[in-house]
């Protein structure tokens, strides 16, 4: 995964080393010392801010970063899928006959939309001030967000109208402030809120006819319907991406830019609410992010610095051996190596478990809507 | 943290602010679905428009001349039994939908407040009714005021959660009425402390729920029928309420359903797009009311729709969606004449228990048709048949007819009991209409105007309501008005706004004396040309004048001068709009319904002799052999020397003693016109005869005295040839200048199939061939279709050939490719109408385009927009056809009257053969009439119908063979039909 240039922090090696040691303590002391490792920064969120969209949301974090997301839906003609569904070919043959002129219906229409959605029905665009459309950061952010939305498949299935038409969902994400920290989590939360509160016009026509919709906007159905009362299958919610980082033995959530700079490993975990129980969450996708610390230059200890009375190493092999010895001395060295498997499982447990981080975030976002 | 919210004002503070918004979903025809958000600014200065209120007058918004719109509602509104102090009426949507005819009555329903909510709902439900309502609001005498309650803050109503749109609108109406009541009371109090007569603002609605809520909120409200009951002549007015609503309540008890359900709109649209269903206009055959046809682009021939059930409540003229039946159910078009009157004479209008929709007789009639389906000729072969599955658009209008005597229970004039009667429309293609009326006794024997309200599944016939009576059956006034209404001819006198567009000098207007006058700009002075006009006798609106003179080089200068109407009728003023709507002047036997006011038509524009007049001239240089060397177009001033009738002109030309310039000029014109005519025939122009008759009337009473066929003189074709030449030249010039928007006229070549039947008939009966590959082929083979024993035969064939032709139509040049511009009948590449602007709107438009083409003046924007011109073309095509039909109907009526009481024998020819009768054409009177088998003898004689040889062998007492094209002698009488009181021309074989 390409590194995010924006998160290029201007901290000296000494500062980096200082940060790392404070974060590796037990309990870790974060940059904002009022926050614990599992605390998220406070935010102000509102939805339905753009009246002409199907759904919209805006979240502003306390460090000044702000994101705005609009969701628009358009009816589009479906491409005919060869061999899609049982007996589709035979049905199409019948439709050409003049005899009955009746449009053939599919059986089991109720769950007939399962599996009929297509990935191309969701179109996402991310705009970050100072970046072009084809720069790496917007492209990767867009693909990570899209991937998490499409992973479970329920959203695109919900866009199916009938065999000839579907909804094309266009999600426009705007970061309103310059990217001071890696904006993935913010954008994801804003998108989550926008999708949660998005509505589609109510369908009046039947089965395979040309779709006809109810004029009344108040009759519009939510894109993510609320549970109908029976709690056996709790309502579906869009996924949310949570950033988690590991420093030494500690795991820290919702890291700010400086904290990310000293991370050993960064994970972006997309979670949605659990379908089997009303608490807990399930993971939809996990991505590792190359920590920016890999790009930082290592510090030069006094012992090796001729300006402070040390001797500079004579050859690269010499330099390497000396650095190995410095690994634990508190002089800054960029972390090496990947993530331990146990670390990943530890993080996922913290996220997904009952009362875990994901559940907190999702219920917090839902509370905005209900409230 | 300081937070700036992006959200708009929430509902909480909407009550105080004057900003509001509404959100809805709009689906466009192409399938796009959009969420629309509209912001609304509320104001407090929309006036109540009552002359009682001074407060509103002061704050009423003023326009740029600093004048407020005058207040409309009277200060002494009429009262009624329920509201003796006077009332302002506020009708609800359903009141307008069911009782529009009531509101249009002159004697009642004044001072009406039309709320914006109600207006918009009416617009969404029925566009024609909406237009009528708008016309009412513009009518000063009716004092209808449109109050914009949605924009006025005090009457603006926000939809509550879970409240339906209808409930919200009802609440808005109640709120408005309540506000008005308070407002008027306050206005009266402010006016004078002692005034006690406070008019009440009353809501009129038929919605029970709304009424109940209004009563609970102590808002004065009443149903439409209750209100009308409190007025004078309540009985007549009550009849005019649409029957649709009542019927629904009565019918709900009955479960019997006659017709299949219509498909939903989305299903039909999907089907049409997919090609499994087809959309077209439903036409009913005038000979067989059970047979309809729908023309759809995918099939060459029209699809047949046979039987009532398949017709599924479609009325002639509706836009319907049909579904083709499986091939084994295809039938042939019927060869029998089936009339509703005779077949369903004994139907009871009150109830229909136990009846199937197709009575036994109808079913038998149809059954015999199936036998034909296996015949060999194209006549008997089955054609694609379909059934109607839904109606896209109803094209119902007001229908003229009379009440079926057999359906009236009590004929007493004084009886005020409500009864259901049948109205038989004049147009045979429209089914009987069930009407509930209290005046049945009075309406018998009258020509009546009614309209259809609805046709539900459980009713065999459509139901409607009565609008007004036109007068006694067969009285000239009633019959004339009836046919004008039937053909939608606008015959009311010109309104003041139109007359205001006439020049102020009126009849004293003259061509300006001095050449420096701006009126002369761009005009050539052609007053020295020897111009004359040749028109039918008694013509006062002279459109055209001609002249011819020899040029020094041996060629001739010929000029056609047309009345310069475009100088007096400027685009887009009231007179132009009225003329555009009328489309053409309608000529009835004794009346003329003008397109333009008489001042212009018969005086200022008319090229009267001995006076100077403005004209638009087309000048040619023509060789002796009638070849055109050059042509010019110019605006001019002429002075016509004489106005001749065709006979007078002919006599003058024939009189060798007359050798003055004028007569010689006329002789030149005649010589050239003959050559031009020959050229046209060589190119393939058709000479089709139409059975034109002239009704001679007594001068005093204009009662018909005699009927004669018109004779064609040489001078007729003189004028005709030069008019054609002018039209063609102007068409070319207009097309050159405006290739996308020139207004032209075309005549499409008839498809081969149209001629099939006629050419087959000629081949079988007379061994003659009718070739139809090109117009020249048609013209030549028509010339050869003669019968040495019978001179009239050729004319008969021409008449029948005319019926195979397509109709000519006006069109906009950009809508067709150049080859399609052809005028088949005239064998001309391009054609337009230019020479009669006084009586045709198309010509006026052509004048405007030509004026722009010669750079006389700029072209108005309305003539540059293709879409606007297409709309104009559509309208004038319809008006042109209707005018023709109205003229023919008028002649038919007069011929019928001329034959009243007479009993004579005349020659006739058999034109069409059915299995139970045949059609005879009588050339002397130009009438064609049906002779049914049962009219020949009682009991109805047996007959053998041979469809392939076109013969009918009648057995029984009559013992006679009737063949197509046979000349027969018929006895013409008139008889009064028992059941309907109508007078009909009756023919019987002698």
UniProtKB/TrEMBL annotation, chain A:
<comment type="similarity">
    <text>Belongs to the RNase PH family.</text>
</comment>
<dbReference type="Pfam" id="PF01138">
    <property type="entry name" value="RNase_PH"/>
</dbReference>
<dbReference type="GO" id="GO:0000467">
    <property type="term" value="P:exonucleolytic trimming to generate mature 3'-end of 5.8S rRNA from tricistronic rRNA transcript (SSU-rRNA, 5.8S rRNA, LSU-rRNA)"/>
</dbReference>
<dbReference type="GO" id="GO:0016075">
    <property type="term" value="P:rRNA catabolic process"/>
</dbReference>
<dbReference type="InterPro" id="IPR027408">
    <property type="entry name" value="PNPase/RNase_PH_dom_sf"/>
</dbReference>
<dbReference type="GO" id="GO:0071035">
    <property type="term" value="P:nuclear polyadenylation-dependent rRNA catabolic process"/>
</dbReference>
<dbReference type="GO" id="GO:0035925">
    <property type="term" value="F:mRNA 3'-UTR AU-rich region binding"/>
</dbReference>
<dbReference type="GO" id="GO:0071028">
    <property type="term" value="P:nuclear mRNA surveillance"/>
</dbReference>
<keyword id="KW-0271">Exosome</keyword>
<dbReference type="GO" id="GO:0034476">
    <property type="term" value="P:U5 snRNA 3'-end processing"/>
</dbReference>
<keyword id="KW-0963">Cytoplasm</keyword>
<dbReference type="InterPro" id="IPR050590">
    <property type="entry name" value="Exosome_comp_Rrp42_subfam"/>
</dbReference>
<dbReference type="GO" id="GO:0000177">
    <property type="term" value="C:cytoplasmic exosome (RNase complex)"/>
</dbReference>
<dbReference type="GO" id="GO:0000176">
    <property type="term" value="C:nuclear exosome (RNase complex)"/>
</dbReference>
<dbReference type="GO" id="GO:0071038">
    <property type="term" value="P:TRAMP-dependent tRNA surveillance pathway"/>
</dbReference>
<dbReference type="GO" id="GO:0034475">
    <property type="term" value="P:U4 snRNA 3'-end processing"/>
</dbReference>
<feature type="domain" description="Exoribonuclease phosphorolytic">
    <location>
        <begin position="39"/>
        <end position="201"/>
    </location>
</feature>
<dbReference type="InterPro" id="IPR001247">
    <property type="entry name" value="ExoRNase_PH_dom1"/>
</dbReference>
<dbReference type="GO" id="GO:0034473">
    <property type="term" value="P:U1 snRNA 3'-end processing"/>
</dbReference>
<protein>
    <recommendedName>
        <fullName>Ribosomal RNA-processing protein 42</fullName>
    </recommendedName>
</protein>
<dbReference type="GO" id="GO:0005730">
    <property type="term" value="C:nucleolus"/>
</dbReference>
<dbReference type="InterPro" id="IPR020568">
    <property type="entry name" value="Ribosomal_Su5_D2-typ_SF"/>
</dbReference>
Automatic annotation (TrEMBL), chain B:
<dbReference type="InterPro" id="IPR041505">
    <property type="entry name" value="Dis3_CSD2"/>
</dbReference>
<dbReference type="Pfam" id="PF17216">
    <property type="entry name" value="Rrp44_CSD1"/>
</dbReference>
<dbReference type="InterPro" id="IPR012340">
    <property type="entry name" value="NA-bd_OB-fold"/>
</dbReference>
<keyword id="KW-0539">Nucleus</keyword>
<dbReference type="GO" id="GO:0000177">
    <property type="term" value="C:cytoplasmic exosome (RNase complex)"/>
</dbReference>
<keyword id="KW-0255">Endonuclease</keyword>
<keyword id="KW-0694">RNA-binding</keyword>
<dbReference type="Pfam" id="PF17849">
    <property type="entry name" value="OB_Dis3"/>
</dbReference>
<feature type="domain" description="RNB">
    <location>
        <begin position="523"/>
        <end position="856"/>
    </location>
</feature>
<protein>
    <recommendedName>
        <fullName>Chromosome disjunction protein 3</fullName>
    </recommendedName>
</protein>
<dbReference type="GO" id="GO:0000175">
    <property type="term" value="F:3'-5'-RNA exonuclease activity"/>
</dbReference>
<dbReference type="Pfam" id="PF13638">
    <property type="entry name" value="PIN_4"/>
</dbReference>
<dbReference type="InterPro" id="IPR050180">
    <property type="entry name" value="RNR_Ribonuclease"/>
</dbReference>
<dbReference type="Pfam" id="PF17215">
    <property type="entry name" value="Rrp44_S1"/>
</dbReference>
<dbReference type="GO" id="GO:0016075">
    <property type="term" value="P:rRNA catabolic process"/>
</dbReference>
<dbReference type="Pfam" id="PF00773">
    <property type="entry name" value="RNB"/>
</dbReference>
<dbReference type="GO" id="GO:0071034">
    <property type="term" value="P:CUT catabolic process"/>
</dbReference>
<dbReference type="GO" id="GO:0004519">
    <property type="term" value="F:endonuclease activity"/>
</dbReference>
<dbReference type="GO" id="GO:0071031">
    <property type="term" value="P:nuclear mRNA surveillance of mRNA 3'-end processing"/>
</dbReference>
<dbReference type="InterPro" id="IPR001900">
    <property type="entry name" value="RNase_II/R"/>
</dbReference>
<dbReference type="InterPro" id="IPR033770">
    <property type="entry name" value="RRP44_S1"/>
</dbReference>
<dbReference type="GO" id="GO:0003723">
    <property type="term" value="F:RNA binding"/>
</dbReference>
